[in-house]
Write a structure and sequence with these properties.
The complex is a heterodimer of chains A (about 260) and B (about 475). With about 260 residues, chain A is of the alpha/beta class. Chain A has helices at about 20-25, 30-40, 55-60, 65-75, 90-100, 110-115, 120-130, 150-155, 160-170, 190-195, 195-210, 225-235, 245-255; strands at about 15, 45, 85, 120, 145-150, 175, 215-220, 240-245. Chain A contains 13 helices and eight strands. Classes of the chains: A alpha/beta (about 260), B alpha/beta (about 475).
Chain lengths: ~260, ~475
């Protein structure tokens, strides 16, 4: 069930940023771009150095107690009552939707429930809290892009149109929608290595559909999908480049 | 069939005809369903109601089963209780033998598939003839259903045309769908007229009135349950609903979710055998209620939601895995997402432990389930019961997926990721040295079969945040 999210009131002065473990190691520029976008809106962005991973890899693999201990470290790393903005629908979904269940009956249950209610997916926060879709000024060259919505972003966090509203707000960008946008790219965490052939078939179809849009870039809000789709595009020698939404927006509007 | 899901998936993925058949069929079904539920508010209200009806019935299931038996018996329906599929097969055989029946005409029934009833009857000299067109086709082919609603969806019309030419006397090869349907109809009419008994499933069992509700599109369900002198129905115990009023909302969900139809061509309500003075209908009606592990599923509060299923198949129609590998890959009677949670619970995680992992947890099934079964949550629960079972678990085969190596890996992962100091050192090391890991290393090998190796960025976001002066607190 998508989380029913309401914007924090009043408008926050400080936000926490949860970068995610995948971004930390493989896509730090995408993570940093999200922080810069928030900073440009006059918000103080706090990046707790004690953060690591939401716990989803172990949780989805059936290793709940290990997932809980890693999640507990996050509960402790974000003590203030500030929004926690996450540049990934999947990690946000883990924390927003699954933390309350993960900590049911645990000494930190109340803390986990409160933490979960403070979690926001980045594009949702940019649109609904900061109204960024009405403020973007596109300084980039003409470009055609397509959007890949991540499964957990859409189906756990209820984020469907927000990223596309941001992209459409860019005057020199043409967004060509992929008719199979809502179909999973085949990443699925450990699924990609547990069922490599099924995963390969899924990502092959995904890059075909992306190619058919004629876009030179595929933009997404989840680095798991981008690692999968981008890796497959690269291996197949396709010219389409993967990019995280935050990096794309920052590049267009702040010329980074 | 191959040894496990991966092996069968490999075969399916390398069968372009099969993949094309599924892709085309699933695309069509998804489009039709979407057209039925354009109004999101209406859809959300309807599915919430559907879920509530089934949840309410399950909450009172033991009482409702008793009430149903009482009402149905009073109506003249003979109710039997089968704990296992062996029991159910034995009961059906006994009933048929007591009537001297040699030929049974069958309406579509997944529970009879679960029982492998046809083979059992065949072994005892009784011929079972499938009369649902799809079931008839796969019976000719000697195959199992690949979908719970459209059992022969894996075949295209060319394959069916060939099957008919090979199996039906004087049938010329034609891909004309009407001509093929007419050919099957000719054969099946004769079978209907000469059958000693009819066998069907049931979509709902109404406790309040002791009625069986059976929906279908071809009229074969009605013929199977009215023409022969004996009707035997088989159904899982989870089919109960409390009241007749509960049926309409579920009917507003089931055909629309399944085939994108507003309603099926036939809605059969069976409440009794032929009554004195009536000119048609079977003289005897039996219902075999099957447990086969459902009570164990029922005993767990979370897993109980599995039993809400009304067998519409929308989960498989929308599943990116199912649409690529097809139903036979699951190696079980119930394929797709519902099969991935039901089969391991009925057969045991020791027998079907790979199924809960054959999912990306994309939630496409959860999004379209008309009774809001939290399939993804149950998949994760079953993965957990397999790897690290809870103390009070009732799941069959719990712990069978435990691996000392895997557990050690996750313990190691926890040691790094739950400890900021260890995480700092670990990520630093990976940033610097990670790219030296060869593409042929375990796990990376599977990943790089169709993708390039992920590149460690050199500096972590933690480092960049510090360098750019972002506050730590």
């Amino acid at each position: 069930m998508p989380a029913h999210v309401t914007p924090p009131a009043p408008m926050p002065k400080d936000v926490y940023y949860f970068g995610t473990c995948l971004v930390d190691l493989f896509f730090p520029d995408a993570g940093l771009a999200g922080m810069e976008l928030l900073k440009h809106q006059g918000i103080r962005v706090v990046f707790p150095q004690g953060q690591s991973c939401c716990g989803q890899p172990a949780f989805n693999s059936g290793h709940k107690s290990e997932a809980r201990e890693v999640a507990r470290a996050q509960l402790n790393a974000f003590p203030e009552d500030w929004p926690i903005v996450v540049p990934s629908g999947s990690c946000a979904g883990m924390m927003r939707v699954h933390y309350p269940d993960l900590f049911k009956g645990d000494r930190d249950e109340d803390k986990a429930v409160a933490f979960a209610s403070r979690v926001f997916e980045l594009s949702w926060f940019l649109v609904h809290v900061l109204g960024l879709d009405t403020k973007l000024v596109d300084k980039g060259e003409k470009v055609t892009v397509t959007w890949h919505g991540s499964c957990h972003s859409m189906r756990e966090m209820g984020v469907v149109d927000e990223p596309k509203r941001l992209i459409r707000a860019l005057s020199n960008v043409t967004l060509v929608e992929n008719p199979r946008e809502k179909e999973c790219c085949g990443f699925g965490g450990t699924f990609a290595v547990r069922q490599p052939e099924v995963s390969a078939a899924m990502v092959a179809d995904k890059i075909d559909a992306i190619e058919q849009t004629g876009a030179t870039r595929v933009v997404s809000g989840d680095c798991g999908c981008l690692m999968n789709i981008g890796g497959a595009l690269d291996k197949a020698g396709k010219p389409t480049k993967p990019q995280h939404l935050a990096e794309f927006l920052l590049e267009r509007c702040h010329g980074r | 069939m191959g040894a496990d899901f991966s092996t069968r998936a490999h075969d399916a993925l390398n069968n372009p005809q099969l993949r094309a058949n599924f892709r085309r069929a699933m695309d069509g079904l998804m489009t039709k369903r979407a057209a039925q539920f354009e109004d999101q508010d209406n859809w959300n209200a309807l599915r919430a109601r559907g879920a509530a009806i089934k949840a309410r019935a399950l909450a009172r299931l033991p009482d409702l089963l008793e009430e149903f038996e009482q009402k149905a018996s009073a109506n003249g329906i003979i109710v039997h209780w089968a704990e296992t599929t062996e029991d159910a097969n034995r009961m059906v055989l006994e009933i048929l033998n007591s009537h001297g029946a040699k030929k049974v005409i069958k309406g579509k029934s997944m529970v009879s598939e679960e029982m492998h009833l046809n083979a059992h009857l065949e072994a005892h000299g009784i011929r079972a003839v499938e009369s649902d067109l799809g079931e008839y086709i796969i019976q000719l082919a000697g195959e199992a259903p690949s979908h719970i609603v459209m059992p022969c969806i894996h075949k295209n019309k060319g394959e069916i045309a060939q099957l008919f030419t090979d199996n039906i006397d004087n049938q010329p090869y034609t891909e004309d769908v009407d001509a093929l349907t007419a050919a099957a109809r000719q054969v099946l009419r004769r079978e209907f007229a000469s059958a000693d008994a009819g066998l069907s499933g049931a979509n709902f069992l109404v406790a309040e009135t002791g009625s069986l509700v059976l929906i279908e599109n071809e009229g074969n369900g009605r013929l199977s349950t009215t023409l022969p002198p004996l009707h035997i129905a088989v159904a899982g115990i989870e089919k109960l609903v409390e009241k007749l009023d509960d049926v309409a909302p579920l009917l507003a969900l089931l055909p629309r979710s399944a085939t994108g139809q507003a309603i099926t061509t036939y809605v059969n309500m069976i409440s009794s055998p032929r009554k004195p003075g009536e000119k048609d209908g079977p003289r005897q009606v039996h219902l075999v209620l099957l447990d086969n592990g459902r009570s164990r599923v029922y005993a767990d509060e979370q897993l109980r939601d599995t039993l809400r299923c009304i067998r519409c198949g929308a989960c498989m129609n929308h599943c990116p895995v199912y649409s690529r590998v097809g139903g036979h890959t699951y190696g079980s009677v119930y394929p797709g997402p519902i099969g991935k949670i039901l089969t391991p619970q009925l057969a045991g995680l020791d027998c079907a432990g790979d199924l809960p992992h054959a999912s990306t947890l994309c939630n496409a099934c959860v999004e379209v389930c008309p009774v809001q079964i939290p399939i993804a949550d149950i998949l994760v629960r079953l993965r957990t019961e397999a790897a690290e079972p809870s103390a009070s678990t009732a799941v069959k085969g719990a712990g069978s997926g435990h691996s000392a190596v895997e557990s050690a890996v996750w313990k190691g992962w926890q040691a790094m990721y739950a400890n900021p100091a260890a995480y700092k050192i670990g990520t630093k090391a990976l940033s610097v040295l990670g790219n030296l890991i060869p593409a042929a290393a375990p796990l990376l090998k599977q990943w790089t079969s169709v993708r390039t190796k992920p590149k460690f960025a050199g500096k972590t976001l933690h480092q960049l945040a510090r360098e750019k002066g972002y506050d730590n607190e």
